[in-house]
Amino acid sequence: MHSAMNNNVMTLYLAGKIDSNNAADIEAEISQKLAEHPGEVPAFDASELEYISSAGLRVLLKFRKQFGRSLDIINASSEVYDIFEVTGFTELLSVRKKLREVSIEGCEVIGGGNFSTVYRLDPETIVKVFTHPTATLESADSDRKTSREVFIHDIPTAIAYDVVKVGERYGLVYEMIDADTVSRTLRKQPERRDELALKMSRLMKKLHTTEFKPGTFPDARDILHSMIQRPYSIGMIDADDKARIDELIDGLAYRNTFVHLDYHPNNVMVSNDELVLIDVGGAGLGNPIADLLISYAQFVVIARFAAEHGSKAHEQGIGLDAKTLGAMWNVMMPDYFGTTDKAALAGYEEVISGWSYIMHLYGFSVARTLPDDVKIKLGAEVMEEFRKVIGTLKPIAGI
Question: What are the structural domains, with CATH classification, of the chain?
Fold first, then answer.
């Protein structure tokens, strides 16, 4: 039996047939592997397992009792999975069928960002391929479950079918009939800019007024805390600045309303004139300011920064230039807040722009094209401005 360590998880590979003739030997091999890695809870890869009898199942049950928790069995063939299911072991162990393998060779790229790329597989399905090194099977499956939960709460989102393997990466296949991203639609039909901006505003408002059972998704404050941990970990901000930002985030009262946390034209599809979300894996529950600060950074600040510095990175990622994104934001905000009063809108934007420094720091910290010394310099510049307003920032009342 061979094993492998990946992302601090020890995987043991089951192979051939496990029955009364060799179950004791298999148990001894597993025990030996565990002794070599004390404290590790194993996962079992069943991709080469042809058959497992009740004797083999009892071996796995012993280790489940030893660790006091469910064990992961991955890549089971349909035949092996049926054995686990018929015997009731799918209730005792976390058993997953072998993932379908999908090829994206020759497929059209229709969207994406820092963490994933979306391809059209055929006229009726797309696949989101998780490109970030930290993406795991568990995170891909969590994305699938999130999409399902959002869909049944009447938020327009693509139906997530199943997690697949795309080469060495994981992907998530969605139903998406005759659809294109807002970004691609506007590149083909720029005259629809204001129309689609209004639709994006109204969809955002729907998200922020849809309630979920508390705990369905992560607390948005926890997500913001994790975002600020990244620039801190590479020296963009110091401990005192991090403490002040964490205190600001903690000041947001919990809400059980939906926040997307990456809402921009490349994460929204146009299907028969209806807008449909395609990326909800990082969603949470919380105050809408958490969403607005991220979107403001994407639509306005980072896009403007890229344009001023002659960079095409943001334009290539989001799919639209800074002028178009800024114009869309200027259409969205009066509709979202329900006012055309310039003074009121200026006040809202002042608050949102202040909060958006959190996203500036995070965005620069994960930018793959920037060396760390440049990130640290940018972090210092951002914090210089952030310190001027951090003591005045509050949530926006009435949203």
Answer: 3-98 (3.30.750.24), 108-175 (3.30.200.20), 180-392 (3.90.1200)
